[in-house]
Amino acid sequence: MFGGNMQKAMKQMQKMQADMAKMQEELKERLFEGTAGGGVVKVVVSGHKEVKEVLISPDVVDPEDVEMLQDLIVAATNEALRIADKTMEQELKKIAGGMKLPPGLF
Question: Where along the sequence do coiled-coil regions lie (predicted)?
Answer without folding.
Answer: 6-33
